[in-house]
Write a structure and sequence with these properties.
mainly beta, 4-stranded antiparallel β-sheet, 1 helix
Length: about 160
């Protein structure tokens, strides 16, 4: 029953995200199975065909009440043709000081979008990857259900 309810909630959240996006925007999501292992790299592959136009890149995080922290630390690498061009260590706040989750959603699952790179210009057209690992102290991080990246086109 819980799995079915979770699937319905994720589907509704996906539809709501899809209805608010520009047709040129990309949202790539990965299910981390509620136990994100420290060395499990989440890889998001995409093509850039208009490198002359700036983009906003954002992370999408879905967590549930089983997540034991108020923040999430990530290490993100951007690669072009399998060559690393950027590495960032990120710290995102998921909860208010009183413990209330910041994200939106129904029931136990909350979704929040974090800014990653704004007005970013990719160096050239081609194949890119964003590779993400969790940088928390736990070898297995409970309560994170999905991680994703949204690439938003900015109109010139």
């Amino acid at each position: 029953m819980k799995v079915m309810l979770r699937s319905i909630v994720v589907f509704i959240l996906f539809l709501s995200l899809g209805s608010c996006q520009n047709n040129d925007d990309k949202i790539l999501m990965k299910d981390v199975g509620e136990q994100w292992k420290k060395n499990d790299v989440q890889t998001f592959d995409f093509d850039i065909n208009d490198a002359e136009n700036q983009k906003n890149m954002m992370f999408v995080v879905r967590n549930n009440n089983g997540y034991p922290y108020s923040n999430l630390r990530l290490i993100a690498n951007i690669e072009h043709n399998k060559k690393k061009i950027s590495t960032d260590t990120l710290n995102f706040v998921l909860a208010k000081p009183n413990g209330e989750w910041i994200g939106t959603g129904f029931g136990d699952t909350k979704e929040i979008i974090f800014q990653y790179k704004l007005n970013y210009r990719f160096p050239q057209n081609g194949n890119y990857s964003v590779k993400v690992i969790q940088a928390m102290r736990n070898n297995q991080l409970p309560g994170i259900e999905d991680i994703g990246i949204k690439i938003q086109n900015l109109k010139p």
